Amino acid sequence: MIELRKTLTGRIVLTAIATVILLFLALPIVVIVVTSFSNNAFAQFPPQTWTLNWYKALFADGSKWPAALSLSALVAALSTVFSLIIGVTAATALTRSELPLRSAVYALVLGPLVIPQIVTALGLFLLFEPAAMLGSPLAIALGHTVLASPIAVLILIATLRGIDERLEDAAASMGAGRLTIARRITFPLAAPGMIAAAVFSFITSFDEFYISQFLSSVDTVTLPVQVYNSLTFEIDPSVTAVSAILIAFAILALGLVALVRWLGTGRQDPLLSVENTVGVATPGGEAV
Amino acid sequence: MAATLTAGPARPRKLLASRRTRVGILYALPVVVYLLVLFVYPIFSTLLLSLKNADGSFTLHWYADALTGVNLSVLFTTLRISAETAVLSLVFGFLLAQAITRLKPMLAGLAMLVVVVPHFISALVRTYGWIILLGDKGLVNQAMVDLRVPGAPFQLLYNEIGVVIGTTSMMLPYTVLLLYGVMRGVDRRLLAAASSMGAGRVTIFRRIYLPLVAPGLASAGLLSFILSLGYYITPALMGGPKQTMIATLINQQVTKDNQWNGAAAQGVILLLLTLAGLLLVKLASSLGASRKKRSAS
């Protein structure tokens, strides 16, 4: 295996295998983007003629998409705020203090990430149904925060661990108050991590399906639930346009995190390096 | 910080420590309260509901129900599809991670990008992409017809092939990322040493490399197994009635049949299976840590 790359056949075989598997990952995404511009949405690939009709149909009268999009954006914004508040406080507690039952708190934070989402969703349904809160954007945002806040906590723990505490100590020794230290030292250094935490919380909520489906009502349908419904019940070709927009959105968000992280780490590795990409993908380190 | 504290005199240290403890508890409160109310309590009430009759008395009949007849075969289907997914994503993940560690840095970065980006795109969207690709006139069948593959076009949707293709592509980023980390952690000098002592390629792979990465392989496989257990979107959209998985059943019982107790019992069963799997992951990773220590000494 070690010398495999040294032989020509070994190289060819390995590259071929890698290419096939990478296609396996990339094709479903590429095909959606291409199909969203195709004149006959389902019939052929590659398409014969091109159109923007599916994008125009999204905003036509009577379209359900704008309402779903604005609900999802509202819910995601709310849970980003909740997750950041929880994330900053929890990460501070876990890295900058002596906390009794530290490992129990940590296990509690990891819980929502490892427990099947459908179980969490069922529990939240049983909680909000008697309270007559089904369909409330607040309830959906509170539910999404259960999944998004642990991600924010993990990212911010990694961020705070990466900041040299001696800088804060030095500032304190020179007479800086706690607020000044937080504002002038910790916050600027933690900014890339905060941005990453915000972006990932937002994406988590924006793409979340299980909790949304259990907590939505007929009039409050989030974007993923609307996508699911149009894939199962009604054939609506503009779903390809929505999917393509979601893809573009995810890529932009990831690009933003990668850029901020790259600038924040002092541009050690090239932007398009394995280290950088893996760092963006596993922002909480190896905790998960 | 602890080190600088112990260096100081005894009295201020104690004062400082208690202040740090108080701050810690204060800052930990939001996350603890939030997750206790919106995560632990709901799961606890799910557990209670699964043990209750309509009149509130204790019963195990929802579990008996969940473990007989159609429900039992759904459970077996869930385990089967999850196992198939785990094996495939492990094999593909191993090959791809192996290839990435050997590519030139620029290409490796690009390849890793193709692994990571899909991971952050909604599973719903990727599933839809597969539905377009695997249809009768989709790209895959079209290509096979053009290549004159006998028997083409094949039925690749609304059966188990479709579901397993879909779930495998969802789990693949996890296994690649995990295995890539494990492979980077292997001490190359061990392989060089074995080679210098005359071991052949196959021997080195089998006797040195594989034992070193085996715990990582085990946790990656188990992880994709666990994650597949609760999967709903892909089986529901790409499978037929025979590929109904436990999450689909839970969803149906809540949204269509109003059968919350039954759904709760199935949720608890899913939870227990997951916890058992996590225990095994923990075991595998502690085994890996001890092996690494031994190989280092």
Distinctive features:
A: mainly alpha; 12 helices; 0% strand; B: 297 residues; mainly alpha; globular
Describe this structure in words.
The complex is a heterodimer of chains A (288) and B (297). Chain A has 12 helices and no strands. In chain A, 45% of the residues are buried. Chain A is mainly alpha-helical and 288 residues long. Chain A has helices at 8-35, 53-58, 65-95, 102-114, 117-128, 137-162, 165-173, 178-207, 210-215, 223-232, 238-264, 274-281. Chain A is globular and about 70 Å long. Helices cover 80% and strands 0% of the residues of chain B. The model of chain B is unreliable at 1-10 (pLDDT under 50). Classes of the chains: A mainly alpha (288), B mainly alpha (297).
In short:
The complex is a heterodimer of chains A (288) and B (297). With 288 residues, chain A is an all-alpha fold.
Provide the helix percentage of chain B. over 70%
The whole-number mean of residue pLDDT values of chain B reads: 88
- Quote the beta fraction of chain B: under 5%
Any low-confidence stretches of chain A, pLDDT <50, length ≥5?
none
Count all strands of chain A and give the number.
Answer: 0
Distance between the termini of chain A: 29 Å
Specify the biggest β-sheet of chain B.
Answer: none
The span between the termini of chain B is 30 Å
Broad structural category of chain B: mainly alpha
Rg over C-alpha atoms of chain A, rounded to the nearest angstrom: 23 Å
For the secondary structure, the number of strands of chain B is 0
Strand content of chain A: under 5%
Topology pattern of chain B, helix = H, strand = E: HHHHHHHHHHHHH
Shape of chain A: globular
Q: What do the pLDDT scores of chain A average to?
A: 87
| Contiguous runs where pLDDT drops below 50 for at least 5 residues of chain B | 1-10
Oligomer: heterodimer
The best one-word shape of chain B is globular
